[in-house]
C-alpha cells in the first residue's frame, strides 16, 4: 500500500512539474537550454516531494515550499526579475489550490457525494487528482494564453480549438470517477482506469508542448524564408547597381576624353573654364571605390544615398579590414540589418547621426556602428524587442546578425549610452584573413 501511494504521489509530482515547466516557458523567455530547464524543473520537484514527505504533507509548509521552488526555478532558468518570479510562483500556488477546490466542489455537487469518503481508496483518489490536475493545466494555459500570443507571433486565436482535447478529457475523467464510485470494481480494474487517466493527461500536456514547439519552429522557418527573400532581392539590386555603375564609369571616362579633345581644339579660355568644371563633376562617377571590396563599396554607396534622403549624417571609416572573407549574401544581410536599424533610429533622433567603422585590431576584424538614438531600446532580458508595428515581419534583424556572426565564429554585442543618447553595435571576428 505504501509503495502504491508513493508511486501515485510521484506521478502527481511529475505531472505538476511538467505543467509548471510548460507554464513558465509560455510566460517567460528561457535563458538556458531546454534540456537544462527540464532537468532543473524535475530536480526541484523531487526536492519538493521530499520536503512534503518529511513534513507529512503539512499544508502551510507545502504552500511555502511550492512558492519557493517555483521562485527558484523561474530565477534560475528564465529571463525575469525577482518580482516577476514571485508573482508567477504565487499564480502557480493559486492555480493548484483553485483547481483542487473547484474539482472537489464540482464532484460533490455533480454526484451529490462526500469526496472525503474516497480518500482512503488510492485509485479513486488518484482519479480525482487527474481530474483536478487537468483543470489546473487548463487554468495555466488560459493564464498564459495572452502572453503566448505576443511571444509567439504566429500563434493565432483559432488555435483555441486545442482546448477541446483537455475539456473532453475532463469529461472522460468524470465518467471514470463516477463508474469507480458507483460500482464495486476490483483493484485491477481501478488501477487500469487510474493508469489510463494518467496517460490521457500526459498526452494532453505533450500535445500542447509539441504544438508550442511546432509553432515556434514554424515562426523560425518563416523568419528564415523572409530573410532569404530579402537577401535575394538585395543581391539582385546590388547586381543591377554594379552593372549601372560600370556603365556610368565607362560613360564618364569616354565623356572626359571627349571634353579634353574639345578643349584642345577650341583653344579658348572661356571654353577651357567651362570644360574644367564639367570635367570635375564627372570625376566622382569614375571612382571605383576605396575598400577593395566591390560589394562593400556598393553597400556603403547605397546607405550613403539613403542617409542623404533621410537627412542623416552617415560617416564611415574602412581602414585595415574590408570583410572580404565573408560571402556576399552574408555581408549584405549583416550590414543591411545593422545599417537599416541604425538609420531608422537616427532619423527619428535629434542628432541624426550614424558612424560605421571596420578595422583590424590586434588580429581581430572589428565592426562598430554607432547611431544617435533618443529613446532607450525595448529589451527582454538581453534581447532587443522590435518597436515596429508589424512584429511578424520585423524583429528578425538581430537574429539574422547573430546567425551570420556565429557562422564566422564571431561575437556580437550592443550597448546604449543613456547620457550620449547613442546606440552602439559591436561585431568581432577572430583570426580571419581578408
Give an account of the 3D structure.
The chain has 434 residues and is an alpha+beta fold. It has a domain at 2-227. The chain is 66% helix and 11% strand. It is built from eleven helices and nine strands. It has helices spanning 2-27, 34-54, 59-77, 82-111, 122-151, 164-182, 187-266, 269-283, 294-309, 328-346, 397-407, and strands at 29-30, 78-79, 313-318, 353-361, 364-372, 379-380, 383-384, 410-417, 422-430. The strands form three sheets. It has a five-stranded mixed sheet with strand order 3-4-5-9-8, covered by helices on one side. Strands 1-2 form a two-stranded antiparallel ribbon. Strands 6-7 form a two-stranded antiparallel sheet. Helix 3 crosses helix 4, helix 4 packs across helix 5 (122-151) and helix 9 packs parallel to helix 10. The chain is elongated and about 120 Å long. Residues 150-155 and 389-395 have low confidence and may be disordered.
Question: Which range does the strand content fall in?
Answer: 5-15%
User: What series of H and E elements makes up the topology?
Assistant: HEHHEHHHHHHEHEEEEHEE
Can you give the helix content as a percent range? 55-70%
Shape: elongated
Low-pLDDT sequence parts? 150-155, 389-395
Structural class: alpha+beta
Mean pLDDT: 79
Give a count of the beta strands, DSSP E runs of length 2 or more. Answer: 9
| Rg result | 33 Å
Distance between the termini: 73 Å
Give the neighbour order of strands across the main sheet.
3-4-5-9-8
If helices are DSSP runs of H or I spanning 4 or more residues, what is the number of helices? Answer: 11
Largest sheet: 5 strands, mixed
Amino acid at each position: 500500500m505504501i509503495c502504491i501511494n508513493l508511486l501515485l504521489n510521484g506521478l502527481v509530482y511529475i505531472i505538476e512539474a511538467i505543467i509548471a515547466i510548460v507554464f513558465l516557458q509560455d510566460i517567460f523567455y528561457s535563458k538556458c537550454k531546454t534540456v537544462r530547464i527540464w532537468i532543473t524543473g524535475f530536480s526541484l520537484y523531487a526536492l519538493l516531494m521530499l520536503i512534503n514527505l518529511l513534513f507529512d504533507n503539512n499544508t502551510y509548509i507545502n504552500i511555502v515550499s511550492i512558492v519557493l521552488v517555483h521562485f527558484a526555478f523561474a530565477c534560475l532558468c528564465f529571463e525575469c526579475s525577482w518580482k516577476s518570479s514571485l508573482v508567477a510562483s504565487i499564480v502557480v500556488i493559486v492555480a493548484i489550490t483553485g483547481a483542487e477546490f473547484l474539482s472537489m466542489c464540482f464532484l460533490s455537487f455533480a454526484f451529490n457525494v462526500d469526496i472525503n469518503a474516497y480518500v482512503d481508496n488510492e485509485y479513486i483518489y488518484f482519479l480525482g487528482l487527474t481530474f483536478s490536475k487537468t483543470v489546473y493545466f487548463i487554468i495555466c494555459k488560459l493564464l498564459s494564453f495572452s502572453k503566448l500570443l505576443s511571444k509567439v507571433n504566429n500563434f493565432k486565436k483559432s488555435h483555441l480549438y486545442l482546448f477541446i482535447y483537455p475539456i473532453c478529457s475532463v469529461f472522460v475523467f468524470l465518467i471514470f470517477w463516477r463508474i469507480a464510485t458507483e460500482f464495486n470494481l476490483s483493484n485491477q480494474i481501478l488501477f487500469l482506469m487510474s493508469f489510463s487517466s494518467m496517460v490521457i493527461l500526459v498526452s494532453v500536456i505533450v500535445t500542447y508542448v509539441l504544438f508550442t514547439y511546432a509553432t515556434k519552429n514554424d515562426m523560425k522557418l518563416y523568419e528564415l524564408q523572409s530573410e532569404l527573400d530579402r537577401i535575394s532581392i538585395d543581391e539582385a539590386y546590388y547586381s543591377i547597381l554594379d552593372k549601372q555603375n560600370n556603365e556610368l564609369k565607362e560613360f564618364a571616362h569616354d565623356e572626359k576624353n571627349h571634353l579634353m579633345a574639345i578643349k584642345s581644339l577650341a583653344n579658348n579660355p572661356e571654353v577651357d573654364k567651362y570644360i574644367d568644371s564639367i570635367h570635375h563633376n564627372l570625376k566622382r562617377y569614375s571612382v571605383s571605390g576605396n575598400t577593395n571590396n566591390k560589394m562593400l563599396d556598393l553597400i556603403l554607396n547605397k546607405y550613403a544615398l539613403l542617409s542623404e534622403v533621410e537627412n542623416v549624417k552617415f560617416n564611415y571609416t574602412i581602414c585595415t579590414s574590408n570583410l572580404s572573407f565573408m560571402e556576399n549574401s552574408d555581408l549584405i544581410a549583416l550590414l543591411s540589418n545593422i545599417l537599416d536599424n541604425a538609420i531608422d533610429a537616427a532619423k527619428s533622433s535629434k542628432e541624426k547621426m550614424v558612424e560605421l567603422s571596420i578595422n583590424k585590431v590586434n588580429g581581430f576584424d572589428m565592426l562598430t556602428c554607432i547611431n544617435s538614438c533618443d529613446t532607450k531600446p525595448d529589451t527582454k532580458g538581453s534581447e532587443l524587442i522590435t518597436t515596429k508595428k508589424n512584429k511578424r515581419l520585423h524583429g528578425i534583424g538581430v537574429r539574422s546578425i547573430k546567425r551570420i556572426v556565429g557562422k564566422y565564429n564571431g561575437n556580437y554585442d550592443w550597448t546604449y549610452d543613456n547620457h550620449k543618447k547613442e546606440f552602439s553595435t559591436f561585431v568581432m571576428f577572430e583570426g580571419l584573413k581578408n
